[in-house]
Design a protein that fits this description.
The chain is an all-alpha fold. It has one domain. Helix content is 73%, strand content 0%. α5 runs antiparallel to α6, α7 packs antiparallel against α8 and α8 runs antiparallel to α9. The longest helix is centred in the N-terminal third of the chain and has 25 residues. It is globular, with a radius of gyration of 18 Å.
């Protein structure tokens, strides 16, 4: 028989890890790059944050691997009011970030429309869970589509940057968000993979918090909203 999962402890450790990662990222941004924007050789902030991120990722995988397997939606997602509030808030933040990004010229209108639809779908997920109703797969599909499109659009921009350290944490956060949301959709068919989904939620949430160190209002809204989305899904999936 497996030991009970202390999800409160796991959540607290995740928040602490994210906060430490944010501080390390700020340190890295202030010391690791020269005047030309290239990484200084041997800078300690580079390997310290890299090792720390690796340790957190391994611990997330270990935490997920200890869980019992579950595949049914109703066995994994609760109808609690706090969870509903956080889920709706995550959608509201993503919505605000999408609108601000378009206003700043950072996103095109089609991507913004898809982002608004994704944010509304995220909020709908929270409301439906509160009512004890399993969302249809299409409700999860919209955030999946938005996250995949933005990953493709952003990666085209990142790929011309010779300094991988400029965008690697954004990339890891985006991959985590895509994989977690895709896996969440599997529960709508009662074919969910609890362990894999928890891993992507925890890892994606951590890297999202780290990437917030790059600052900017759009980043704080959009990435912050996704961090909440991943965190609340991980929290529900960790319940024994």
């Amino acid at each position: 028989m497996r030991a009970k999962t202390n999800r409160t402890l796991i959540l607290c450790l995740l928040i602490v890890a994210g906060a430490v990662g944010w501080v390390l990222r700020r340190w890295q941004l202030s010391t690791a790059f020269d005047e030309a924007g290239l990484v200084r050789s041997g800078n300690p902030s580079v390997w310290v944050l890299s090792v720390f991120a690796l340790v957190v990722t391994v611990l997330a995988a270990w935490t997920a691997a200890r869980l019992d397997k579950r595949s049914a939606y109703t066995d994994c997602f609760s109808s609690g009011a706090p969870e509903m509030a956080v889920t709706v808030l995550s959608g509201a933040l993503v919505l605000a970030g999408c609108v601000l990004a378009m206003a700043n010229g950072q996103r095109t209108a089609p991507v913004t429309v898809l982002g608004v639809a994704a944010a509304l779908a995220m909020g709908a997920v929270g409301l439906l869970r509160r009512r004890g109703v399993m969302p249809v797969a299409a409700v999860h599909l919209i955030p999946c589509a938005y996250l995949i499109v933005t990953l493709i659009v952003d990666f085209r921009r990142w790929s011309v940057d010779p300094t991988v350290l400029d965008y690697c944490f954004d990339l890891f956060a985006a991959i985590g968000a895509v994989c977690a949301t895709v896996n969440c959709m599997g529960f709508c068919f009662d074919k969910g993979r609890r362990r894999e989904t928890v891993f992507w939620c925890l890892a994606g949430c951590f890297f999202s918090m780290v990437s917030l160190g790059d600052m900017g209002a759009v980043r704080w809204l959009t990435t912050g909203g996704l961090a909440l989305w991943l965190g609340v899904n991980g929290w529900q999936l960790l319940e024994d």
